[in-house]
Write a structure and sequence with these properties.
13% helix; 25% strand
């Protein structure tokens, strides 16, 4: 099928699920995770201001656009952020991202 990719999402408890993602609706990864019933606070509504949608890109992130300054500044405030950390609200997935594997790390309060 066109414009559908499959990504793997590891929740905080270690369970991994594959979710199908339509790439033609222009939702961010954060919005897709919320729509898939994952517990993501996203307090700021996707403005890269709160970092509660912090994810770790485990594999398959080669085609993601690089983080911009505002995202990097927010990630710098997180004690558990590393080079693989991204804010899910800043990631728009394309057909090139099929097979992406992310781990949810954002805070729950």
């Amino acid at each position: 099928m066109e414009n559908i990719i499959t990504i793997s999402v590891e929740d905080r408890d270690g369970t991994v699920q594959e979710i199908e993602v339509p790439t033609d609706i222009n939702l961010s990864l954060m919005e897709l995770l919320k729509a898939s019933e994952y517990e993501v606070l996203a307090t700021c509504g996707g403005m890269a201001l709160c970092a509660t949608c912090h994810v770790q890109v485990v594999s398959g992130g080669d085609h993601l656009h690089p983080a911009e300054d505002q995202e990097l500044d927010m990630l710098d405030t997180l004690p558990d952020a590393d080079d693989d950390s991204r804010l899910a609200c800043q990631l728009r997935l394309t057909n090139d991202d099929n097979g992406l594997y992310v781990k949810i790390k954002g805070a729950l309060q």
